[in-house]
Amino acid sequence: MKLCDFVVADAIVPDLTAGNKEAAIREMVASLRQSGSVKAEDEDGIVAAILKREELGSTGIGNGVAVPHTKHASVDKLVATVALAREGVDFASLDGEPVFILFLLVSPPDRPGDHLRGLENISRHLRNQSFCKFLRQSKDKSAILELLQEADNNEL
Amino acid sequence: MAETQSYRREVTVKSEHGLHIRPCTVLAQSAMKFQSRIHLNKPGMQVDAKSILDLMTLAAAPGAVLELEVDGPDAAEAIEHLAALFDSGFAPTPAEAKPSAAVSVG
Amino acid sequence: MLIKRGIAVSPGVAIGPVLVLGAESFRIPQRFVSIDAVDAEISRFRSAVEAICQEIGDNERLASERLGAQYAAIFSAHLMLARDEKLVREIELLIREKSFSPEFAVSRVFRQYAKRFQALGDQYFADRAVDLYDLEKRLLKYLLGEKREELSHLTSPVLLLAHNLTPSETAALDKQFIMGFATEVGGETSHTAILAGALELPAVVGIGKFLADVSGGETIIIDGSHGTVIIDPDEDTLGKYRASEERYKSFSKRLESLRQLKSETQDGVPITLCGNIEFPQEAMTAAHRGAEGIGLYRTEFLYLESQREPTEEDHYQAYCEVLQAFPTQPVIIRTLDLGSDKMPGALKAEYPDEVNPALSVRSIRLSLQHLDLFKTQLRAILRAAVHGDLRVMFPLVSTLMEFRQARMILGDVVEDLEEQGIPFRKDVPVGMMVEVPSAAVLADEFAREVDFFSIGTNDLIQYTLGVDRGDPAVASLYRAGDPSILRLLRGVVTAARKHQISVSVCGQMSSDPMFLPLLIGMGIRQFSVTPQTIPELKEVIRNLTIAKAERIANRAETFDIARDVETFLRGELKKICPDSAP
Lengths: 156, 106, 582
Known about the structure:
The complex is a heterotrimer.
Chain A: H1 3-6, H2 21-34, H3 43-55, E1 60-62, E2 65-66, E3 69-71, E4 79-89, E5 99-107, H4 112-126, H5 129-137, H6 141-152
Helix pairs in contact in A: 2-3
Chain B: E1 5-12, H1 21-31, E2 37-42, E3 45-48, H2 52-56, E4 65-72, H3 75-87, H4 94-103
Antiparallel strand pairs in B: 1-4, 2-3, 2-4
Chain C: E1 2-5, E2 7-10, E3 13-20, H1 38-66, H2 69-83, H3 85-98, H4 102-118, H5 123-144, E4 158-162, H6 167-171, E5 178-183, H7 191-199, E6 203-205, E7 219-223, E8 228-231, H8 235-258, E9 272-277, H9 282-288, E10 294-298, H10 300-304, H11 312-325, E11 330-334, H12 346-349, H13 363-369, H14 371-384, E12 389-394, H15 400-420, E13 430-434, H16 437-441, H17 443-449, E14 452-455, H18 457-465, H19 483-498, E15 502-505, H20 516-522, E16 526-529, H21 534-542, H22 546-556, H23 562-576
Parallel strand pairs in C: 3-4, 4-5, 5-6, 9-10, 9-16, 10-11, 11-12, 12-13, 13-14, 14-15, 15-16
Antiparallel strand pairs in C: 1-8, 2-6, 3-7, 7-8
Helix pairs in contact in C: 1-2, 1-5, 3-4, 4-5, 9-11, 11-14, 14-15, 17-19, 20-22
């Protein structure tokens, strides 16, 4: 599974405006909705599910990265989006530092395999310092998308 | 007893790695759906197409030309079906998925 | 009289009549069956085929759920092979017409096909012969029953000789009748060797080919302390060994008496001695030896022993078995600690062979790349934790990010279990192994987020000194007493104290009485050790004061080469316990 298989290109948020955790999650899910990947009536439910998961332990895993995620019956395949927060968002991360890179995943509950493949894939790339650095330097959607493709092709 | 028909036809192995275990599985599974006796021939060798083991001993490489030989009441249908499988390079089609599900009992 | 030398893996002396296990993993008991029995034998064969088809079908479903349809295809091919009409016909024909036993017919027909595959002159097909051997083995295993035929009908004490014993065979040895064993293959760190120690059976492994010299039934001596096997001993030798058998028994008794005594220093400071185990069966032995818990339960066995990946239930049952031996004491489970090179089946194929396994995808790295595998284990841990003081520990953590990712996955598992309404414990303590130098150097940072440290000295020494202990050319450079190791240990202890988390040592260094005063002197109060060494270590502890241990540690840290450190420590141990071993 490749990043570009599940990251919805139209839903990428190159400049997250939200200033806190909940708003950041809300903004990313809204972007998924605008791209047609989640339905308007499910938006609140998805946000609530992601926030509930965050209560069990922040998905801000350090290095300025967070991977909020949830399972939700309203989607029929794994969808994800990437957002860059230029000023950083307080995500109650384990290291207490703000996050700048966010990957948000929503997956159907009956396909746990895809969900895990997605998480594995993201965590592998996030361990690559160049990937994180170049991602933060990307100015717009197309630059981010290009970087994701390069990562998929192991060109970094 | 049903009327017996006999057919022979040349087929070419088009699957990427030749008659490896997976194409053999598909072929044997398909052959077993027919009552007819089905053989694959190559010079000096004849194998039972309903036996995956036999099929594998052909060790047929990509591009190999084999003869399909079918005798039995449903031979006409069988030879068309199996020849089509060779032509498709043994790509699993929805039609193939069914008998395989029937085999995986337990 | 014939004397053979091998590797001593489990001390003690045993004397008795010999039982030789066939070198083939499955000895086929008979070639023919009576003509009257043919029909019954054919139906026995058919139910064996049905049973293994069922088993393969289960594996297929498991593979398709876990790994995806392309892996499941391998099993559907196996299923087709097992159901191959021609093959089945040939086997039944041999049973019917030649009165061959099903075992013999199966073996014969499968082997003929395997040989044909090998003769095709194509590597791919030659490799497929392995699939046939695998099927043959499954069928024979079913036909012969789980245990090797010879082992299931013992009625009197014997000493066992075999080419090899698998860990599961070793674990299943009936201690009532098996007094000791010796094998042709195997090494000091093989699972079989570890188990022999746990079962307290005198054992010698790695003897090399010698079974041809034994006919079975003669008297032999297995000296597991010195690694010798004596076949057909003369009277003098026999007398000598009978005496040493007695001596060993009384030494064991003396250590046994230590079990009741507290593990504390002369000045009354308790030192916790937990056991390292690899198999759930070892837990009870560890408890008998006086272990105050399990400080390191290595779970790799679950992955290595079976043809398939362990299910959540496999994990759960194993953990519950350990908790039965330690219902109220801590049991620390280390998650999967294998390299991709050791992984069974499909996983191994995902990674290239040429990489250095010690520095590649292994342990927590492997778990984080195979989350379904990881989550299965974590689910079982959280579920089993309901029954006792279970804790989880991640191996080979080298960066904080890795630890946090692992913790995040644990959070996902908590969420899943909560949603599914399955009973589990949420607040299971989460620790890590400190065994990569980066983790030791950053111990202060790690200690803020981790519930406990366990120092894995084996890998820590290997990575710090850059020495593979298994390589004889450099093995002498592997020294636990190296000043660099002492300094790293000191740093980890200081960080743990500062952040008030517990720290224990679980590598082999802690099972060596020589290093115990040093480690206690550095401030370590918990150890997880090979269970058999507990009585001996307790004796050292009970002859020590904290002040003395601290003096020893301080002095040891002034030396600048490993040899001086170790010479000093050895001398100090002699002063503390003048007669620590027989």
